[in-house]
């Protein structure tokens, strides 16, 4: 294969391993499109790209690189010109005369010995010039005539030497920088000491930007973004979580947005921030804001029985969907007529979570509406159906007009859209096996939201900034309308009364859960279904929060530790949420 191109070599090695282009992409940071372009001879890859591909294929770099590289002369001229010319940027931006060639040298020094040699000479000269400039300034302040002459001479002389070498290197591939102090030498053993000096200069130049590399937690302590990323990688590996998106907010703005893992683990397709993710009960948080906008517009009132808005009984309407607007069973119920919008949003309707939890699959009210918390997607559906009949618009249209379009959430909807087919995540069971994607859901306020990490981050940012609706409406949403005194949110624990959460005043607002901390109120919303598990919690009084989205059935097994590490949040009632850590199960 000595005379074959890199494209042919890559294709040959890939097929020997039995990898598709998508599988090879999943094993590297190289996109499928780039692999296709390399194999089709449309692009000449960078050496670092070749190294990544070689490592994934478990072959030597020389097995992919052709022996003769016809690009070498052209690339040499281009990179040499950049190495010698970029120091001129230092005329406009201090220290860039050193930093620009330094970054180019680090990037190219292993590609060709001439890049290494010229880069070292340029960097040595520019550091020397920098020191001379400092000395000339000191001379100007201390020595009358000589100091002035030295000060006005340094910059023109250095610029002249740079221009001379730009011309010289283009003609002869050689350079000459007189009087340079050898901070960097060609011997590799001397490089680390010189690099420490240069790194020191770089740190001084960039110290004002260090805040952006850290996240401030609730207690004021800081965590670096890099260390958080490493911790998330470790948690995902230990708990066997396939894919995750995390956004963290400081001062009401996202300061950390990263995705990890895969949208399809068996196929090793990587997750991105624009990948469609099933939102599950994140739907309810969006719906709560939507309803409050309609309250502000006078379409509905929170405390007027919903039945009174319709010209006929809800059970008399002919169903238009497969099941969710069929309320015929309520004809036998004597309590449903008391239900208000507030009761639907704070989960006190008395409806089960969904009608299939009833022995006969028929919806009915348990207890007096408004009296007791009982998580219910059916309550949200009932309110949705009433609003659809009142406005003459479907849920997806209302959400698009009120929430999605104003916030630029272009990849969000309450039903599957054909455009989502190009990039979507599948859910996974606890073994990491992919589950079939459900694409035929009809829009339901309780749980059919399709969104992306990027879009839902936009939504939470808008909530923190109190957009879409007024501050008064957000205060209404983020007020505990019902106290919660059960051991768990679901299953048998939902029937056991406890005072365990009295200290945090656990309760429910309108579409959002509520508890109190030393840093003010906290509001949360979770999501769970079809192999997706999510959690979000905002601390609106201090402008902080976190969003976690996973496509793993066991995703919530790291939520407790992740909240503590990323946010110093030790207040979220993780046992009530059943967020049992993976190492405690």
CATH topology of the largest domain: Beta-lactamase
Distance between the termini: 54 Å
Query: What is the CATH domain class of the largest domain?
Result: Alpha Beta
DSSP summary: helix tally: 17
The helix fraction, in percent, is 25-40%
Structural class: alpha+beta
CATH superfamily of the largest domain: DD-peptidase/beta-lactamase superfamily
Question: How large a portion of the residues is in β-strands, by DSSP E?
Answer: 5-15%
Q: Helix and strand succession?
A: HHHHHHHHHEEHEEEEHHHHEHHEEEEEEH
Uncertain runs: 67-75, 188-194, 201-212
State the domain count. Answer: 3
Total number of beta strands? 13
Q: How would you sum up the major sheet?
A: 9 strands, antiparallel
Description:
This is DUF4870 domain-containing protein. Keywords: Hydrolase, Membrane, Transmembrane, Transmembrane helix. It comes from Flagellimonas pelagia. The chain folds into 3 domains: 6-63, 434 Repressor (Amino-terminal Domain), CATH 1.10.260; 70-186, no CATH class; 235-567, DD-peptidase/beta-lactamase superfamily (Beta-lactamase, 3-Layer(aba) Sandwich). Strand 9 and strand 10 (513-517) form a beta hairpin. The longest helix has 30 residues, at 113-142. With 585 residues, it is of the alpha+beta class. The radius of gyration is 31 Å and the shape is elongated. Residues 67-75, 188-194 and 201-212 have low confidence and may be disordered. The two termini are 54 Å apart. The strands form 3 sheets. Strands 5-4-3-13-12-11-10-9-8 form a 9-stranded antiparallel sheet, sandwiched between helices. Helix 5 (72-85) runs antiparallel to helix 6, helix 5 (72-85) runs parallel beside helix 7 (113-142) and helix 5 (72-85) runs antiparallel to helix 8 (145-172). It contains 17 helices and 13 strands.
